[in-house]
Amino acid sequence: MLRRSTVLAPCLLILALLQTACVGKGSQAALNYQTKSVPVIRPAAELSPAEQRAQSRFALNGTKLFHIPEQIDGLVEQRFGWLEDLGVHWDRIDLWWHLVEPRDGEWDFSRADLAFDTYEKHGVQWYPILCYGAAWFDGHTGPRNDEEMDQFVDYVRQTVTRYRGRAPYWSMWNEPNIPMFWSPEPNPEAYAELTKRVYPVFKAADPDAKLCAPVLAPLGTWDRKFTERLYQAGIKDSFDVFDYHYYRSHPPEREVPRELAEIRAVMARYGDRKPIWISESGVSEINVGAERQAAYVVRNHLITLALGVEKFFYFDLQNWYDDKDDVWDSQLGLVTASGTKKPAYFAYRTMVAEVDHHDIVGRCEGLGEKIEGVLLRDPATGEYTLAVWQTEDFQTRTIDVACGAGEVRVVPTEGGEPLTFKAAEAPRTLVIDATMYPAFVHGVDPMAYLPMAGVTLTPAHTIVSWGEERPLAIEVHPFLENPEVEVLSVDAPMGMAWNPTAGTVSIPRTLTSTMAVLWAGNRPHLTARLAVTHGPPTDRRTVELERTATFEITSRLDVVFRPYVDENGKFHAEARIANRTAEPIEGIVTLEQQSNGARTTLLELPRRTLAANEAVTLELGVTPEMTAALSDTAHWSVSFAGVSSKPVGLAPMRLSDAAPIVDGDLAEWEGLPAMRNEREDQLLRNHGVWTPANASVAGRVWFTPDTLFVAADILDNDPAVNDNAPHQMWRGDAVELYVGFTGPSRRTVLDKSVEFQIGLAARSSETGPVAFWFHKDVVIEDATVASRRTPGGYTLEAAIPLRTLGVENLAFEDGTLIGLDMTLDDLDAGDWAPAGNEPGRAIVWNGTSMNWIDPSGWGIGVLKRE
């Protein structure tokens, strides 16, 4: 490696094969960098109440005023008191369409008028939610046709016009990606179309107001699939703020930064750089206890705000119940249902006082192992504060904090009196014990922490196709005085070229065989070692930093294939193809089948050209004869211009009047093709070394007129490890069967009357072999389950009466299509995983980790009469 240079020549960094590329001596020109764009934060004392509300970052889902106006002088008034005590002046709640327009064309704004007047009396800004279905809708909430969409648009027109100037932000629906709020079935294209119709009317009604969307519910993590379909449907220019929800009951420091970076990457891929709000996020006391709830609430806020989230609405101010420990979201509140302030209440209040109306410089990277920090600045005094904590629960780590010459004050989040240290000469070091609760250390030395918090590689996550050039710049916060930045070295896969002066990175168009190995997984990283010099002429300091950017390598095209059976029982298949480039792409849409190593073309569509950034949905014209000809397990996929979709598995299932004997001996199942979970790309979860010999399954399904039979032949080097209760059998050795009796679906949410997740385990904490119905949370008592050890693992065999599932009246015949999937859960004694992760492995035949709620990724079972 070359010695560090004092300057960086404006050259292109070509990154070598898993080696460090060093920058040699060049001209005396300093490296160009981008100055970070930051909001101007004014001292709260200089602002009017309205200006303070506009600048505040903290908000709650709090009073429920619109829901319970009859309690306006009781519980609602008490909640307004809590908001005032917490220092919060934003509240979010619905403004229901069905109440303001009880009959088509008849308007009653009395409840909304009362709500606006009450909020304004208390100095609280209402963030209203425009929602849901009309009073005259028949069993659904999401508008289904042009007429119903136009009726919703008229509701928006009437409502926003009436309250023009009184609500600067409005929410476009709430969680339209789940059927609880968009029934009977979420539809991203319909939501996008509705939002596109609403936006011009909304802006005409109040040109200064901003519309927030898509306000999505978390489905494990953020709902990326729904979001991408919204952008592909053209929603980008029809809202002003990207609003989403997340709930987590474990430390946020690892997942939340990745999630926000990925959200911004998806937005940027579609040319969108809107601000981000989080209008629901909560931590359940049921899952973590009162003390950890308090710590996690504060840490979630600090991390997200340091990463640029503009406003954060915590959910909820008050518990729904205090005694329903099986309802996880009943205890998200800062206050108990009976009115007792929880530790989270006092921690939240301290955080608001310490953070609101302060500059948030950024997240301090490099403080030490498992140490996190966020740097703040008081715009009134110029004082810097470090919010610092360690990420292990109930542990303590000693940390040295660099302090300035003035007074140093430490404010604990968890309560207690602040500690004050008198002024002394700088530099000096304060040794503190960092706990899971953030402590706010006032008077830190900004020279020590500004580079940590204020120098980043931007963007942190980039979605890029082969052969593309994308932005990647060193970004410096304007609070650094006279900064100079040098790139000392860069590590990245072969072929990636970064020009830090131009702020761009290029991905190779093609890979050699050696490069392909290094790019495996399509999530490479670029790590740059930087030297940052800053400060006044009399006190220049240099700090060395490492900064990393993640790249998600994607195809030029998105090709998604989904066969499904419609509500009339007709078999369809559609292909959604999106051009992700700025150039037209020409090709032929082909449906192919792969089985036993042979590839067959089932159909082709005429050649077509996709315009730049165009997305189309095509009906493929499949026929029942195509599945009737199936004799072995197969996979279907769609290709266009050399890019293929994820394959969809098809598996024959036996249909007969004769039934197998359920005893764990699978000899009767011989000859029936199997779903095979045995490939590395089928792994959903894995911490450690995996091979098919230590975790794989061959799964088969057999129907008689009244019973569903399942067989699983499992390879497992440590078989039948499961001491969990039946409802948590997935944490050990188990099989999860997914079956949809009305056929493969394109819905993204289960219809629990005909689609089921059934767990099978050879043992549990309570019994021997057991079958469990997850969505009803019950053991299937009349199921028969058996298991046997085999030389390489064990078997599971089960019989489940169709009458138990409520589908005994469905007719089955030769060729009937069933939604079908299987996941193998595997745990070995001594398995370990990082905090926030489940140990062991999960291997799915066709779908995703969201199989338990989203049937659109399941494969297909084809009944074969014998």
Q: Which overall shape is indicated by the principal axes computed on the Cα atoms?
A: globular
Helix percent band = 10-25%
Tell me the number of helical segments per DSSP (H or I, 4 or more residues long): 14
How many distinct beta strands? 51
Evaluate the radius of gyration: 29 Å
> Could you give a short account of the major beta sheet?
18 strands, mixed
Return the average pLDDT rounded to an integer: 91
| Strand percentage | 25-35%
Q: Unreliable runs, pLDDT <50, ≥5 residues?
A: 1-29
> Helices and strands: which structural class?
alpha+beta
Distance between the termini: 70 Å
Protein architecture, described:
The strands form nine sheets. The protein has an 18-stranded mixed beta sheet that branches. Strands 4-11-10-9-8-7-6-5 form an eight-stranded parallel beta sheet. A six-stranded antiparallel beta sheet has the order 12-13-14-19-16-17, with helices on both faces. It starts with 12 loop residues before the first strand and ends with a strand. The longest helix is centred in the middle third of the chain and has 22 residues, at 285-306. Helix 5 runs parallel beside helix 6 (188-205) and helix 6 (188-205) packs across helix 7 (224-232). Mean pLDDT is 91; it is low at 1-29. The chain is built from 14 helices and 51 strands. With 866 residues, it is α+β, with helices and mostly antiparallel strands.
Describe the SSE topology.
Elements: E1 13-14, E2 20-22, E3 34-35, H1 49-55, E4 58-60, H2 75-86, E5 90-96, H3 97-100, H4 110-121, E6 125-131, H5 146-162, E7 169-172, H6 188-205, E8 210-216, H7 224-232, E9 241-245, H8 255-269, E10 276-281, H9 285-306, E11 311-314, H10 343-355, E12 359-364, E13 371-377, E14 384-390, E15 397-403, E16 408-412, E17 419-421, E18 428-434, E19 439-442, H11 446-454, E20 455-458, E21 461-465, E22 469-471, E23 473-476, E24 484-491, E25 497-499, E26 504-506, H12 513-518, E27 525-534, E28 541-554, E29 557-565, E30 571-579, E31 585-587, E32 590-595, E33 598-604, E34 608-610, E35 615-619, H13 624-628, E36 634-640, E37 643-644, E38 648-655, E39 675-677, E40 683-686, E41 695-704, E42 707-716, E43 734-740, E44 755-761, E45 770-773, E46 778-779, E47 784-790, E48 793-801, H14 802-805, E49 817-826, E50 841-844, E51 859-865
